[in-house]
Amino acid sequence: MELKTGAYILRFQNGGFHVEKNGKCLYFNHRPIYVSVKTYGAINEFRDCAYDTLQHNETGILAEGHFRTDNGSILFIRDLYSIHQGVLKIARKVIVEKASQDDLGFQTKIFFYQALSDALTDFFYFSPGQWYRHNEFAGAHALGKNMDLQYYYRKETYSGLPMFAMQHIDSGETISMSRWAANATLPSLDRTATENYAYVDPKMTVGSFGVSKAKPEALTYTYYGHKIATALPKTQCDGVSIDYIYPAVNGQTPTAARGPFNVDLPLRNITWVHPMREGFAQEYAVAVSFAQYADFNTMMRMTWREVYPRLKDRLFEVDNALLFDNMMKFLKTVTKQFDTAWGTPFVAQLPDFDPNSFSAEIGFVGQQTGIGYQLLRWGVMNSDEDAVKKGLGILDYWANETMTETGCPRVWVHLSTHQFEPQPQWIREIGDGLEAILDAYVFEKKRGIVHQNWLDYCIKTADWLVAMQNEDGSLYRSYHYDNSVCMDSKASTPCVIRFLIQMYLVTKHKVYLDAAVRAGAWSYEHMYLGFEYRGGTCDQSDVLDKESGIYCLFAFMALYDISGEKRWLDAACGAADYVETFTFVWNFPVYMPYPNHPFVRNHISGQSNVTVGAGGGDVYMAACSYTYYRLYLLTGDHQYCDFAEFINRNCKQANDIDGSCGYRYIGMVNEGGSFSEQQYTGRYHWLPWCTFVEVDPASRFYDTFGLHEIEDIEKLPLAERQRCNRIYDNYAPVE
């Protein structure tokens, strides 16, 4: 018996199967029925066996079998294999026919062994937001940091799409598994899984994807991370396998040491099982795809895009023009004056907007000059003198009072106490803050108003960046105020490229363009080709993350806009493909403890992981809708248009868009939180960046295309949209 999908043939024989291509076996499973049992002694014992029967039916191949535990429990397993639009679907049903009192719970697994190699390091891995290649630049607690373990599992609710792919490095042969449908439900809410144990939960409908190289032994972890291995003499293991285990496992993942016990490299391993109860049934389905790709970037892009349309959440209904105006009214209201200093709170608790601090950053989390520019622009366009006054107040304060003798601004001040804060000169902060001041200068100059203090501030900073640039084109991530190096990572180099290019357009000083190109060349080699998308934020260590990819996207797009060189467009697409995979495109239910939070009624789709390995996410992808749409116009790749529309709408699900959620101000948005365990936890507060990353692309859409909604922009003639997309043709004011 066999099923075909493209060049790949799935052959069944002797109660198992193998997948071949051109007569060569790539994947196999001699014993597809796998059951892990939680015994009364709280040991998770596992074994597998072959199917009893195989038969063709009208839709595919039906495989059935029974599994008997050592304690006498009996499970019936029925798997239906079928092909749908080139994708293999495996639909499974498991029924407990007999239950022993010594068996407490069970898991099952759909899995494929690798025939090309049994070495974990011979493969690249892709788990959205969790695992890229070998996670070389991820944090210490990420999957794959220790490749000597047996299991690498993460709940599918940690990823933007519930999927996992592995690619044989030498051949490029790739197998990808994903959940067939986005039909997860809430687990039991009357229990808490916090320790390294197996928890019985009849309501758990979430599984885990991953890879394993199991040994015939049961692993039991103590709460403080010590491993106890128990031999399983009846169990066979055949090497490296890609797995979907149901219900879920989070493990074996590194964790922090716990208590006074000396455990080297403690591990976390939490398991959920279904009750071994007569009549209890499991039902789930996965999709499996086979393909061959030339490199990891292509594999990541194509496997993501195969799952994307099948599991993408519905589009959120939002009036972006109205929301933009409401957010600007909100920013105007909460911007306050402290003598010569102007700005918003650094943080305010929700739902009543209780300000906790007036610590202010020029960029990054604070985005003060960006908010200043947006208030000025919106105030002028709407004849709102109060907004104009506050926007000018913010911009003049930073330009007049924060420049240092070395030629670089202080990036962090406390407004209400009029004191500078002891933060280094972050390159990310400088890129954010100075670009906004330059945009404000250009906006005013086009109206015939010259703010020479703003331009001088930008020139001094740009000259400092040129002077500090390393021979290889990079800049260090941060500096002390005596120009000595604070953090010798170079990962923030892309953050100032767009500012330098726009400084060249305004001043015509080619030294700025040359510096931007040199920084771009370093970023191309290390970030794009080397996949070193790390160090994007100022409050995380130098680890693989989302925002570093976003700033590479901004930088490479700006380099392409100014030069038209294809390499920059290729790099922009590479960064865009990477960043997209951090976004929760599918939806699953999450319990909300805050009655006024929009997620009580809205979906979590549109949120995005912050760093690789994190659970839950924030609203930062809202910053990218304009750029993805522009990338679509440059490439003709409709995926970028579809995704731009998705984040332009679904990211706003975290906003109180019309006041009905009960936030103090219409348009307010919660920063983010952890929700991958399906119970929302986190910082229930607003930070300035949360609103800025939504108003910034909204204003850019309007300034470029005259509209806020992508659906409306798409109705314009293509030639007109492409003409508008040449944003640097008219960026600089005409002298």
Describe the structure.
This protein is of the alpha+beta class and 735 residues long. The chain folds into two domains: 2-311, Beta-galactosidase, Chain A, domain 5 (Distorted Sandwich); 320-724, Glycosyltransferase, CATH 1.50.10. It is 29% helix and 26% strand. Strands 1, 2, 3, 4, 5, 6, 11, 14, 17, 18, 21, 22 and 23 form a 13-stranded mixed β-sheet that branches. A nine-stranded antiparallel β-sheet has the order 7-8-9-10-24-16-15-12-13, covered by helices on one side. A hairpin with a 4-residue loop joins strand 5 (33-39) and strand 6 (44-49). Helix 5 (427-445) runs antiparallel to helix 6 (452-468), helix 8 packs across helix 9 and helix 11 packs antiparallel against helix 12. The longest helix has 20 residues, at 510-529. The radius of gyration is 27 Å and the shape is elongated. 53% of the residues are buried.
Task: Write a brief structural summary.
This protein has 15 helices and 37 strands.
Q: In percent, how helical is the residue content?
A: 25-40%
Derived structural class: alpha+beta
CATH topology term of the largest domain: Glycosyltransferase
Gross geometry: elongated
Biggest sheet record: 13 strands, mixed
Note the quaternary state here: single chain
Distance between the termini: 76 Å
Which CATH class of the largest domain applies here? Mainly Alpha
Q: Give the rounded overall mean pLDDT.
A: 96
The radius of gyration over CA amounts to 27 Å
Number of E-state strands: 37
What is the total domain count?
Answer: 2
Please work out how many helical segments DSSP would assign: 15
CATH architecture of the largest domain: Alpha/alpha barrel
Beta-strand proportion = 25-35%
